[in-house]
Amino acid sequence: MSLHRKLFARIDEMNENNARTRWIGRPFKERGARTPIYVQKAITKAIADTAHNSGLEVTVAFDYGSRAELLRAAQLAMNHGEVTPESISSHLYSPDMPDVDLLIRTSGETRISNFMLWQIPEATVYFTDHAWPDFNAAELDQAISSFQRDKQR
């Protein structure tokens, strides 16, 4: 089963746990967007089906690169005549998303890889050797424990 199908097949579980799906990436209708239609539909459905939840937010990135996001935000801010941190933030792909508290980096990678550079200034970064499809509840518990220890310092 492909990754997007695996993730979005768990909508009932997300609703049971009051979790909300969010998505970041190049807007579907924007010129040059590369997210396939079937993935767009799965993302749109998952967002709609979990929109009422108010707990944990799971943000999924497809067709996303932070440099492209920042360049687009700066261009839009310039077009509106004001380039400030607030105007840049207001033109990000998900302007209403708060800064990231915990960034989980899977697959043994120890770099940020052009990911949410604007949104992670104070984030705790948790590194794991597990690949994303194999990342499970026990590993998530370890990541959260690490985050809690980091915040106590």
UniProtKB/TrEMBL annotation:
Keywords: Transferase. GO terms for biological process: polyprenol biosynthetic process. Its cofactor is Mg(2+). InterPro entries: UPP_synth-like (IPR001441), UPP_synth-like_CS (IPR018520), UPP_synth-like_sf (IPR036424). GO terms for cellular component: cytosol. It holds the Pfam family Prenyltransf. One of its GO terms (molecular function) is magnesium ion binding. Gene3D superfamilies: Decaprenyl diphosphate synthase-like. The keyword NADP does not apply. PANTHER family: DEHYDRODOLICHYL DIPHOSPHATE SYNTHASE 2, DEHYDRODOLICHYL DIPHOSPHATE SYNTHASE FAMILY MEMBER. This is Unannotated protein. It comes from freshwater metagenome.
